[in-house]
Write a structure and sequence with these properties.
This protein has 121 residues and is α+β, with helices and mostly antiparallel strands. The chain contains two helices and seven strands. It has a single domain, classed as Nuclear Transport Factor 2, Chain: A, CATH 3.10.450.50.
């Protein structure tokens, strides 16, 4: 994929969050680099690893389109090309049907190149 001139880390992160918040995986399509790597939060305890742009897009698209999930991003901290992005994920109305977590998302040249997800246990 080619560089996306002028797209900031904040803009990439905003679109990424919007895809999960609104269940619209099409917003992810040009946000992911060809060499992207995801370290997922599940299955426990170590999560799964997804390598390559197509594999990462497929995994995130699956999560984004799941309307049973409610994704609530919290303000991220940007450290150079790394976003520390906390969130809450709900799958039901009860207190035990949610988890807090954080993604460490590396963004270069307007695309996500790496993401590592962690949850509170």
């Amino acid at each position: 994929m080619t560089e996306v001139p002028g797209r900031t880390i904040v803009e990439v992160l905003s679109r990424y969050n919007e895809a999960f918040r609104t269940h619209d995986p099409t917003l992810l399509e040009d946000l992911i680099s060809d060499d992207c790597v995801i370290e997922d939060t599940s299955p426990a305890p170590g999560g799964a690893r997804h390598e390559g742009g197509r594999a990462c897009l497929a995994r995130w698209s699956e999560l984004a389109r799941d309307s049973n999930l409610t994704f609530s991003p919290e303000p991220a901290e940007i450290l150079g090309d790394l976003a520390v992005a906390p969130w809450v994920l709900r799958w039901g109305p009860g207190e035990g049907e949610r988890v807090r977590g954080v993604n460490l998302i590396r963004i270069r040249e307007g695309r996500i190149t790496e993401a590592r997800g962690y949850v509170k246990a």
